[in-house]
Amino acid sequence: MRIIRAVAGLAILLLAGCGGDQNNATPDTTARVSRLGAQRLAAPAPAADYGPLVQQLYLAYFGRAADSGALPNFEAQLAALGAPTDIQQLSSAYRDNAGVRALIDSFGESDESRRLYSGDTETFVRAIYQNVLGRAPLSGGLAYWIDAIDHQGLSRANASLSIMGAALVNASAQGLLDAALINKRVAASASFTSALNTTVLAQSYSGKAAADQVRAMLAAVSGGTDLTAFQAVIDSTLLSLARSSTDRPDDASGSQVHVVYAVPAGTADRRLDLSDQLVNSTGSFNNWLATQTGGRRLRFDTAGGRLDVTFVSLPRSDADYEAQGVRKRDTIEADLVAAGLVSAGKIYTVYYEGSNPRTCADAPRPPYLAGQVMVMYLHGLANVAGVTPCDQNHFAASPSAAAGYLDFAMLHEIVHTLGGASDGVPNQVAGGHVNTSPTDLMYAGPLPWQPSVLDANKSNYYNPAGLPAGLFNLAQSSFLMPPP
């Protein structure tokens, strides 16, 4: 059917030069600890910016950028504790403020940090140097930090940031190089975190594999990196984390709806699969469906607890597909099948980044037109006199928001793809529609479509008590899950 629209202690115990690799001198650890011990915590400035400090903590302990959820969380905790924004001042805060000490220790004692930094003391220190400074320690620095940990009271939980903090104030030639490297990686980390500006992107940055990938990205940053040019690397990393061109492993078995974002050749990729729009839309109309079915929802394909959306770069241009006329949807489905992207037991909601002068969406209609793919033409009905273009409508603002035209349109096509409304139902018109009321999800007729009811008289395509044998009944569909 075609839908036509008419109407995001730290004990830096040993700073100021003590992280340098002066091979000809033995740092006076005791004296440096004494001088730092005399410092007192200064009150942070109003609206202090803890963002760089949190990124430094993540780099020091995890070698990667902060995730978008953790960043404001740790900023708020540091602010509530009255912590300074400068890592060199955190030693006093670590000693005098139990909350600061517990927060910083939570970094060093975390499983992720322990995985990065393990082994005997020398192995531990070498790993920190490689992770934080991108190099091996010189002999003087190595001996100094081994002694600090083994004999001078520097805990392993604090060592990463102590080494980073020391490097940032070391005025030697090597120290200046180290500081430049750290500052560039902090800036690159901040850019990466700020780019996690949708729920989809933010959720994609989770788990060990994602952490390893971002760690490798930052390892490529040097003191001389052009951060403007490096944005392309950040962008590529985000795409790699969040975008999939295959159907990811399913969380559950059974009949399910899989979401596809398809871009025809030569068409701009607006990255809807990385935005929240498709998650919002499917969540919104599925929640509406639950209000009509006593809590039953369509089973959507998820992976890792998140909606699984496949990105497809189609082999033909929009003009090539349009040349197929009314077989445009059929050709898109054929190309998806040829690419191995259509599996038994699933149907596919395809959000197509292209046009169609005839409709906003269409679908197969078993048994007359077999198929598993319904297509929404995101730029459909453009330049058609007297008709509102499809892209002047909007998806629901969130999964909990009320469904709108585009959301209902895709649910309408899902019902068609599953088989509704069958020939022989009391109110069927126009090939799979009903004429009961313009508020019916499957209505077709002269009045403006204003969907708000699933099968207005419960006689055409949805009735939990049953419909006559041989008629499609959504209530009996394997694609609907039991109520929670």
From TrEMBL:
Gene3D superfamilies assigned: Phycobilisome linker domain
Q: Where is the DUF4214 domain?
A: 106-165
Coiled coil start-end: none
What superkingdom does the record give?
A: Bacteria
Entry-linked InterPro entries: DUF4214, PBS_linker_sf
- Protein name in UniProt: DUF4214 domain-containing protein
